[in-house]
Design goal:
heterodimer; A: mainly beta; 4-stranded antiparallel beta sheet; 10 strands
């Protein structure tokens, strides 16, 4: 079946512009995560959605960042008034559910969106 | 606070040699531990995971990892490295018992394989 897809694969924008990044998780996966990976760095957690629960936004670096997940499926990460330090690869992942049930915890990652802010 | 340390930023091995990538974590309870691999131009892929039970975990592509509670380690091993194993390897720990919603990630180890 289809994996996690993200669009666009690459995005170049000018400082101060808004951008929207899209994530299509695996069908049926209840949990969705956004991460940021800067050059040579590990993954930085941004936000987590689980079903109809309130999202865990504790990783969002500033109020310029926001995300939503419509209908428990597709998610959009929005960055307003982009800054050069926002340049990174933004990764989306989904998992079947977040419980400790064996096999249920694996996060499946999309290919990422490479954002470059000029 | 939970943390993950991968002490080796970059490792180079010869093809056919054995490999061990180190991962140390800091966590107050029984952790949920993962190794992921990121190949050039590829997305992150799960190699293996530990939740409970046998401390030696087998994964895909011939990898294994051993959970050592006394050393707070979860080192990744492979007896014979192939050129296709050249990639970035990430160790991660589940931040909440029974819930991997906020995996804490190490900074990664870049593996190069010499022919």
């Amino acid at each position: 079946g289809a994996g996690v897809s993200q669009s666009p694969s690459n995005k170049v924008t000018e400082k101060g512009k808004d951008v929207e990044l899209r994530c299509d998780p695996i069908s049926g996966h209840t949990a969705l995560y956004w991460y940021r990976q800067s050059l040579g760095q590990g993954l930085e957690f941004l936000i987590y959605f689980q079903g109809n629960s309130a999202p865990d936004k504790s990783g969002l670096p500033s109020d310029r960042f926001s995300a939503e997940r419509t209908g428990g499926s597709v998610s959009t990460l929005t960055i307003q008034r982009t800054q050069q330090e926002d340049s990174a690869v933004y990764l989306c992942a989904s998992s079947l559910f977040p419980s400790s049930t064996s096999g249920g915890n694996e996060q499946f990652f999309g290919p990422g969106t490479r954002l470059t802010v000029l | 606070a939970q943390s993950v340390t991968q002490p080796d930023i970059h490792i180079t091995v010869s093809e056919g040699a054995s490999l061990e990538l180190r991962c140390n974590y800091s966590y107050g309870a029984t952790p949920y531990l993962f190794w992921y691999v990121q190949s050039p131009g590829q997305g992150l892929q799960l190699l293996l995971k530990y939740f409970s039970g046998d401390t030696l975990v087998q994964g895909i592509k011939g990898f294994e990892a051993e959970f050592k509670r006394s050393q707070s380690s979860f080192n990744l091993r492979k007896p014979s490295v192939h050129w296709s194993d050249a990639a970035e390897y990430f160790c991660a720990v589940g931040a909440d018992a029974g819930n991997n919603r906020k995996l804490i990630w190490g900074l990664g180890t870049s593996l190069a394989v010499n022919p």
